[in-house]
Amino acid sequence: MVYSYPGPHIGSRTGAVVRRRAVRTVPADKAAALETLIRGSWAPNAIYSLCRLGVPDALTDDPRDAATAADLAARLHCNAPCLLRLLRLCAAYGLLVEVPRPQNTVRGGGGGGCGIHGSGGGGRGAKGDCAADVSQSTTTDNGAAERSEGTLMQAAAGDINGSGNGSDNGGGGGGCVCREAATSFHLTETGLMLQEEHPSQMNWLALMLGLPGHYVSRGYLYDNVKEVGRMGFEAAFGTDWYSYVGRHPLEAAAFDQAMTATSAAAAGPVAAAYDFSRHATVMDVGGGQGMLMAAILHRHPGVRMGFVMELPSVVAGARRMGQRGLERLQYVEGDFFQPFPPPRVDCIVMRLVLHDWPDAQAAAVLRHARAALAPGPGSRLVVVEAVLPEAVGPGAVEAATLQQLEFDMGMMVMTTGRERSLSEWEALFAASGFRLEALMQPDCAKLPLMVVRPEPEAEVEAAGGEEGGREAAGGEEAGGEEAGGEEAEAEGEPPQPPAPDSVPVP
Ligand SMILES: C[S@@+](CC[C@H](N)C(=O)[O-])C[C@H]1O[C@@H](n2cnc3c(N)ncnc32)[C@H](O)[C@@H]1O
To answer: Is 355 among the residues known to form the active site?
Structure first.
C-alpha cells in the first residue's frame, strides 16, 4: 500500500528553499519503519522507573517468590494500577514474567476487597491478596515512592485505607476481581541483572540514563546543533555536567557506579587482548579506580609495576579502597594536561579518556603521554575507544556501530568531546607524535583497542619541545631514582620501576 502527501509546504517551517516534487508516494513499510524510529522506545524510562521504584530488589527469578502488583505497590509505596501497567511493559521487554493466579486468591473478601485504590468498603478482604498490607500503600499518582540518595522515600502520602480516589478497581462490599492481584510477577534471568547488588551494575546504568541529567539533555540536541558552541546540557540546565552532579548526589552516584560497572566489564577482555607482558611498566592514564590495571597485572605477571594516574580526588577514593590486593599497583596523582609525573613507563593505556576532549586538548594529553613513554623502540600507547565508520553507507549498520553513533550524540550534548573515526584517530595520533600500528577487536569487548607507536622523530621533538614532559617539569633536575633510571634506559637497559614511595605527589 502506498499513500501520498503534497510536498511543497513541507519544510517551510525551517525557511529552507528546497525543490520538491509536487506529490510523493511513500511505501507504507518505509513509513512504518520511520514512524517506529520517530516514536523511539519507552524502554529507558520504563527500566529506570522500575529500578528507581525498587522492583527488581523486591523480586527474584524464582516463580515461588512471585508477587502481585498489589503486593509490590504496598511494599514499595506506589500506585498499584500504574505499577501493573509498568510491570506489563517490562514483561514485554523480557525483564519479568507475568503469571496468572488462581481465581480464589484474586477476589477481595468480605469487607472491601481491593482497597488499595478502590472506593468501596475500606476494610481488608479476609483473604484477598490485593488487600494485604494495604495500610502501607498510598494512592498517589505516579512516583509516590522516591529513591533519593539511595533510600526509598514516600514522596507524597495519599489515602491509605481503600477509600481513595482510584476508580478502576474499587471493590464494593461483596469483593472484586482485582486486576492488580490477578497475576503475579517474577524476574527473568535478564531482569535479575537489574538488582542493585548484581555484578553487572545495570541498575545504576538504568538510573544514570533515566535521571534528568542524561535524559533531559537529550531533548536539547536540536539546540546543541543550532547554537554554535553551546552544549545541549548547558541549554537544559544552565551549567556544565560536573557542576551539576556536584549538586545532585544521586546522579553522581549513578554515574560513578555505571562507569565502574562498564570498566569492570571491559577490564578482563582488554587485559587479554594485548600482550602487556612485553612491557615492564604500564601506566593507565585517567584509569579511574584501577580496575583495568588490576586486571592487567593479574593476567600479566611479567609486568613488574602498574601505575594508575588520576586526579587527586579519584586517587584518594581509590586508595581508600586499597591497592586491589596488588603490591605491584600504584596510584599516582596527576593532571594529564600537565607533564605527567614520573616515572616514565614502557606502555601507557588510555581507555575512554580522549573521547572526552576536543582535538586540541586530546592532542595535548597525547603529547604529554608521548613525553612520558620511556625511550626505545618497544614503548607503546594502547588506546581503547570507539571507532566510528568514516561514512554511514546505505543499508543497516551493526548494532554496535549504531550504539557508538548514538553515544556520539551523548558526547556532543554533555561534553565538549567526540567519538572519532579511524582517519580522525590517525590524524590525532600523527599530530601528537604517534602512529597507529594495529587495530584490534578484543573478544567480548565492546570497544576496539588501538596499539599506537611513538614516532622516532617526535621523540626528539617531544624531549626538546615546549611540552617536553618531565624535562619541562623539572623531572631531571629532581634527580634521585628517576634520573638514575633514565640513564640506565639510555644505555639500553630495561626501565626500572621506582620504589613504591618514590613517586612524588604533585
Ligand atoms: C570517562 S572516565 C574513564 C575512566 C577509565 N579509564 C575507564 O575506562 O573507566 C575519564 C577519567 O579521566 C579522569 N580525568 C579527567 N580529567 C583528568 C585530568 N585532567 N587528569 C587526570 N585524569 C583525569 C577522570 O577522573 C576519569 O576517571
So the answer is: yes
Ligand 1 contacts CB of residue 225 (under 6 A): no
Mutational test site, ligand 1, from 240, 289, 310, 381, max ligand atoms within 8 Å of CB? 310
DSSP E strand stretches across 415-503? 420-421, 434-440, 449-454
Which has the closest alpha carbon to 347: 384, 378, 371? 378
- Considering the candidates 117, 279, 300, 355, report the single residue annotated as catalytic: 355
Q: Where are the beta strands (DSSP E) in 355-466?
A: 380-384, 387-388, 420-421, 434-440, 449-454
Burial class (CB in 10 A: 0-12, 13-18, 19+), 307: buried
What does the pLDDT profile of the chain (506 residues) look like in tens digits? 444 444 444 455 666 666 666 666 878 998 999 999 999 999 999 999 999 999 999 999 999 999 999 999 999 999 999 999 999 999 999 999 999 998 766 554 333 334 333 333 333 333 333 333 333 333 333 333 334 433 323 322 333 333 333 434 433 334 445 899 999 999 999 999 999 999 888 999 999 999 999 999 999 999 999 988 789 999 999 999 989 999 999 999 999 888 888 888 899 999 999 999 999 999 999 998 899 999 999 999 999 999 999 999 889 888 876 655 678 999 999 999 999 999 999 999 999 999 999 999 999 999 999 999 999 899 999 999 999 999 998 887 888 899 999 999 999 999 999 999 999 999 999 999 999 999 999 877 789 999 999 998 644 454 444 443 333 333 332 333 333 333 333 333 333 333 332 222 22
Kindly report the CATH number that applies to the domain delimited by 262-502. 3.40.50.150
Cell of 107: 477476589
Q: Which of 118, 131, 136, 130 is nearest to 77 (CA)?
A: 136
Atom of ligand 1 nearest to the CA of 336: 20
Q: Where are the domains of the chain?
A: 2-39, 45-192, 202-252, 262-502
Tell me which residue of 279, 322, 289, 268 sits closest to 449, measured CA to CA.
Answer: 268
